[in-house]
Amino acid sequence: MALRARALYDFRSENPGEISLREHEVLSLCSEQDIEGWLEGVNSRGDRGLFPASYVQVIRAPAAEPPPPARYANVPVGGFEPLPPPAAFKPAAQQPPPEPFPPPPAGYPFPPYGGSYQPSQGSDDDWDDDWDDSSTVADEPGALGSSYPDYEAAGGGASGRYRLSTRSEPSLGPRGAGHPPGHPHPPGGGGGGAAKSSATVSRNLNRFSTFVKSGGEAFVLGEASGFVKDGDKLCVVLGPRGPEWQENPYPFQCSIEDPTKQTKFKGMKSYIAYKLVPSHTGQQVHRRYKHFDWLYGRLAEKFPVISVPHLPEKQATGRFEEDFISKRRKGLAWWMDHMCSHPVLAQCDAFQHFLTCPSTDEKAWKQGKRKAEKDEMVGANFFLTISVPTGPGASLDLQDVESQVDGFKAFTKKMDESALQLNHTANEFARKQVTGFKKEYQKVGHSFKCLSQAFELDQQAFSAGLNQAIAFTAEAYDAIGDLFADQPRQDLDPVMDLLALYQGHLANFPDIIHVQKGALTKVKESKRHVEEGKMELQKAEGIQERCNIISFATLAEINHFHKIRVRDFKSQMQHFLQQQILFFQKVTQKLEEALHKYDSV
Length: 601
Known about the structure:
Elements: E1 3-7, E2 26-29, E3 38-42, E4 48-52, E5 56-60, E6 161-165, H1 194-197, H2 210-213, H3 216-220, E7 225-229, E8 234-239, E9 242-245, E10 254-264, E11 269-278, E12 285-288, H4 289-302, H5 322-341, H6 349-356, H7 362-373, E13 386-387, H8 398-455, H9 464-486, H10 492-531, H11 537-596
Parallel strand pairs: 8-13
Antiparallel strand pairs: 1-2, 1-5, 2-3, 3-4, 6-7, 8-9, 10-11, 11-12
Organism: Cettia cetti
Protein name: SNX18 protein
Keywords: Cell cycle, Cell division, Cytoplasmic vesicle, Endocytosis, Membrane, Mitosis, Protein transport, SH3 domain, Transport
């Protein structure tokens, strides 16, 4: 039986991908499953696209032709609950005109007319065929979704999976039952309480802001819904410094060693592979830089309130030079240390797949890669995975949170400025040591050598010891020049590597803070509506509760940043000073050896 629907109201399309409806018009539906309050179908004029589900009534009648194929069949709905069919409405003639309809959900991928939606593909300067083939996740065993039984609607489902939703409960207001906030409904469907339900928290006008793109806005407004597995839960606990991520019960480290040049396609393509040895498996795997780059992209997309460390920068030329390979390996080692030290990132499925999948098992790699790319717990649904403290004393004071976040914002700005200054100073000092200091000390050594050669013209035996001592002093200063040239690699370069890593973290936090600030703004707006009698208290409390989840996560990430910052800079400053002491001990030793040569003169 073909799926059809009858238009209850006129609707005029205003955005690409929408189609217009005329009252009483019969449409063919591509699917009865709505996408966040929108259906796809074909109107009587043959136009195909989206229209509001609440403006039509589904009818079921036999039809000779099958429904047209849905162009949006592959668009994930993110586990959203199917909305109940619209309630029966009065004849349209008795209804006032429908209120204006907002555009489809922010970020909804509209295809061009006559085309089909294609998911975006990441790009890399070294992308090749060992990453892609024609199979899909559903075709492969163990892929996301294929290993879980269907969740039964009545009283339970798959073990370890829980249905979570932030959608508002059906109300008796004029927006009707079962529709998410922000979606208009034909008037006349409500009863009492119209005054308090007339106001909603507005959406951001800038649909490209981080708060919107991260899914933070949709979550705070109560539009997230999905299944959360036990393994997806991220717990925030109250520690001595406030909210903290729950520690990884099985901490581990991972070394990055032996970068080697390898080839493929009979030597036509070359690349550098790094050996990774995770401590919790002891099994080595080999990864290329593009594998690191893919992982970073997935994690940055999945965790909008976590600072994913930046990778060392790419380089178009000189990728196989020894100095570049060594510098990149050190940068990747710092990156790996921060990944393993983060309680959330270290346990992420994509990161564990990256660390443990055998290098030679291409099928297993592709399955895990596609599973990560099909992860449903992203965007607004990501925030459903966060579990925060509850009970007495666990609530957050919004003013206190805002004050802490503002203080951290000022801290990161000052730290960024200081890091840039120190990096510039260290780089300039290292340059002087490698070139200027070496040249000056060797110039002094050359001058002493010239003096020794002049003294050798005197053939007196009693002056031979002096000549040899001065010649040795010349050699000592020449060696000290070499020590200066080699020293930056021992002390200043590691400092600059650490600064580069933290400059990446500092670049992440403005977006993280923006998400939290956006949530606070929605809470303030909802409180104002309650005070004006335009919003129910229960709805405003739901917005504040969801804002608290984002605030807990943000404060937990800030505390983790400070904790790891103290650890790293303590260790690095100790290393720097130890290396400086060793350096000057070597210089002193050279000078003392030269001094002793004069004792026998």
